[in-house]
Amino acid sequence: MHLRKRILVTGGSGFVGSHLCERLLAEGHEVLCVDNFFTGTRGNVEALRRNPRFELLRHDVTFPLYVEVDEIYNLACPASPVHYQHDPVQTIKTSVHGAINMLGLAKRTGAVIFQASTSEVYGDPEIHPQPESYWGHVNPIGPRSCYDEGKRCAEALFFAYRLQHGLKIKVGRLFNTYGPRMHPGDGRVVSNFIVQALRGRPLTVYGDGEQTRSFCYIDDFLDLLALFMRTPDDVTGPMNMGNPGEFTMRELAECVIDLAGSSSVIEHRPLPADDPRQRRPDISVARSLGWEPKVPLREGLARTIAYFDRLLASDDGPAVCGGGSLFL
Predict the structure, then answer these.
(1) pLDDT confidence of residue 187
(2) Residues forming the active site
């Protein structure tokens, strides 16, 4: 029987955070979910509030937080271009000030701290697939830089705190993660395609649709995260966390149309600035922990489509943004 831990999850009412809170509660831990509800929703964690070991706190991580915890999962940050480009200054502050505040908390409490970094640190990669040793090809002043460079700075802060203060850190670079509880209006390609297909609208694909991405189902990601957090303190990452299966945007669109039984067509739009041409993780490090993704894309998409079908049936009016490879 493992010891019950007091665990802080920032960004805990978001898509990934809410699934993580649920998993940690199922393991018997006490969970403090912190969110400012910029992109997260209370509905994602509403069912968890009946659990006496769950607490929900409205708080912005750009301000210090004084709590007693054993582990910290720092997930707080808008993760889709629609949201992080809405307020680029606040996006940078969330990544940088948020990391400083959570690292300060970990330093005071001695907590193990996980940083949810991103494949965006690789930018528009010149190496394919991307290993953790690749330094990236990022435009530091482009429209995506508030997110890309904010996350890169957060990684630097984590390793600086480890070097200077001996903190117990884990840094994971999330590739496209998808599943139920994605926000229908977040502008990410999976949620956009699904909502458009279910509504019989054209699926918007940017450019020629030959850009590639890799998609990891939420359950597979959480399995890897659990393994990562149990590794010795000298295993810090950064570690790629994603499914190496690679699909073009056109392939994804056609798959969603098929699984949704939709009559939608594909509509092409101009490619936006700094949209990466390809993205696929080298997961050799993750595999060394004994992890392998289990959920095929079609199976994960079918589960996600079923979730959105129920969501749209109960609420006919969520805001939905344009789709395609821009929003990943």
Answers:
(1) 80
(2) 147
